[in-house]
Amino acid sequence: MIPGEFQYFAPTTVDEAVSLLQQHGEDAKLLGGGHSLLPAMKLRLTTPAVLIDVTKISDIKGVSVNGSVTVGGGATYHAVASNDAVRSACGVLADCVAQIGDTQVRNRGTIGGSLAHADPAADLPAVALALGATITAQGPGGARTINADDMFVEMLTTALEPNEIITSVSFPRLGAGAGAAYEKMRQPASRYAIVGVAAYVKLGSDGNVAEARVAVTGAGPKATRQDATEAAITGTNGDDAAIAAATDKAGEDMDYLGDIHASEEYRRAMVKVYTKRALAKAIAQARG
Amino acid sequence: MSTISVTVNGRTYQSDVEPRTLLVHYLREQLNLTGTHIGCDTSQCGACVVHINGQSVKSCTVLAVQADGAEITTIEGLAQNGQLHPLQEGFWEKHGLQCGYCTPGMIMSAYDLLQQNPNPTEDEIRHGLEGNLCRCTGYQNIVKAVQYAADKMNGSGNSPGE
Ligand SMILES: Cc1cc2nc3c(=O)[nH]c(=O)nc-3n(C[C@H](O)[C@H](O)[C@H](O)COP(=O)(O)OP(=O)(O)OC[C@H]3O[C@@H](n4cnc5c(N)ncnc54)[C@H](O)[C@@H]3O)c2cc1C
Ligand code: FES
Ligand code: FES
């Protein structure tokens, strides 16, 4: 299978890429790792007339750990998963991307590409939501930040404008008293999430759960926060009974998708199972 | 047409390619390096795995223009001076193949694995080869072939690097 014809540009700066996007408007698409876009183009599900390759822009490929963990939009999963500083500052991020696809997918796929594509079964959106990540996008009017909570609009649709590029994504450093985990039931062939749950908790000085964020991916059209679960676990001591009560509320108020891998009903059940695992792991980690 | 310059198995080529040419088609049809196979053509099976700048990738899911300026290694680049690479030898000695269709990709992925982890456990080998499907062997002898290569590469003091 061969994609339709297109014009190819490989800019080396973000400004150049933005002006190419402006110039070619709706005909153009950014090319990151290509591991969602190229398969779709080979099937002629999409036939952009212009591809703007962002992987030659060295400014957006970096990974740095300071007060927070900042990952370039063009950084590969491999670059993140194999970074020891990321692993110690924000282990859940490294864990999550290390579970994406296989070695070859991780050598090409990018952080920006994953978030921009917003595949319903993608792993990273759940972790971005649970950690309250901030996405920096640059367009013709300059740079702006998008909170993960505002990013995922519907299936394969985000808050990004067509002429914007994700230049970086910022994740918090998980300090003392904080814990986070990503638990996933993977599709055995592709390893996409049939259900994936990311949980983040922060304990107060009394040892109780002061703050919690839980997000589900894979089960429905887009990654979704679990408000009722978060409210139920917050203020509790985070013991098994509290986790069970919070888990009971998971996945009650969201849309589901069924497919050949799992029915809606099965996914609904698995959301609870994986929420329980993710919460328990996050709380255990927060306790240190 | 775009002009690209790539180094494949140590030899530099300047080639004209259409932007939509996939790397695997460029290697097989323009450079006649047909050791790299096309299995699924949908990014799943790993028959097309080659290395770009030392990292294993599925060449059916990379454009040739994206490889401009890169160093590429294909299965044809592993044997040196007529001497099989320990991985190739391992697949031979341990019967790591039946029809052989998956083998070039399997070896290129295993080569990446051994670069990252020269002494993998059986689990780590299976995990490292998740991107490669084999419809014949049941994987047992593939694991043994990789273990054979790891032992040989460690024992002989050769580094598993390029
Ligand atoms: C065999 C296989 C298994 C996979 N398994 C998983 C899995 O288990 N979990 C998972 O989460 N994913 C999985 N994926 C998908 C993979 O993670 C993709 O890499 C990802 O969805 C898209 O990222 P990319 O960099 O490849 O982007 P591309 O495919 O290049 O682009 C995807 C979209 O994002 C846009 N885009 C790219 N970069 C940017 C940017 N910097 N700013 C703005 N827009 C941008 C493009 O225009 C396009 O619309 C799998 C893919 C394959 C082929
Ligand atoms: S042919 Fe490339 S992954 Fe199957
Ligand atoms: S030996 Fe036949 S597919 Fe692997």
Molecular structure report:
- The complex is a heterodimer of chains A (288) and B (162).
- Chain A is of the alpha+beta class.
- Chain A folds into 3 domains: 7-56, Uridine Diphospho-n-acetylenolpyruvylglucosamine Reductase, domain 2 (2-Layer Sandwich); 58-172, 2-Layer Sandwich (Uridine Diphospho-n-acetylenolpyruvylglucosamine Reductase, domain 3); 178-287, CO dehydrogenase flavoprotein, C-terminal domain (Enolase-like, domain 1, 2-Layer Sandwich), CATH 3.30.390.50.
- Chain A is 35% helix and 26% strand.
- Chain A has 12 helices and 14 strands.
- In chain A, strands 4-5-10-6-7 form a 5-stranded antiparallel sheet, sandwiched between helices.
- In chain A, helix 10 packs antiparallel against helix 11 (240-248) and helix 11 packs antiparallel against helix 12 (264-287).
- The longest helix of chain A is centred in the C-terminal third of the chain and has 24 residues, at 264-287.
- The termini of chain A are far apart.
- With 162 residues, chain B is an alpha+beta fold.
- Chain B folds into 2 domains: 2-77, Beta-grasp domain (Ubiquitin-like (UB roll), Roll), CATH 3.10.20.30; 86-153, Orthogonal Bundle (DNA polymerase, domain 1), CATH 1.10.150.
- Chain B contains 5 helices and 5 strands, in the order ββαβββαααα.
- Chain B has helices at 23-30, 86-93, 103-116, 122-128, 140-155, and strands spanning 2-8, 11-17, 49-52, 55-58, 71-73.
- Chain B has a 5-stranded mixed sheet with strand order 2-1-5-3-4, with helices on both faces.
- In chain B, helix 2 (86-93) crosses helix 5 (140-155).
- The radius of gyration of chain B is 15 Å and the shape is globular.
- Mean pLDDT of chain B is 95; it is low at 157-162.
- Chain A binds chain B through residues 1-8, 10, 31, 34-35, 38-39, 42, 51, 53, 55, 78, 101-105, 107-108, 189-191, and chain B through 2, 18-22, 25, 41-44, 46, 49, 55-58, 61-63, 65-66, 68, 109, 112-113, 128, 130-132.
- One FE2/S2 (inorganic) cluster (FES) binds next to loops of chain B.
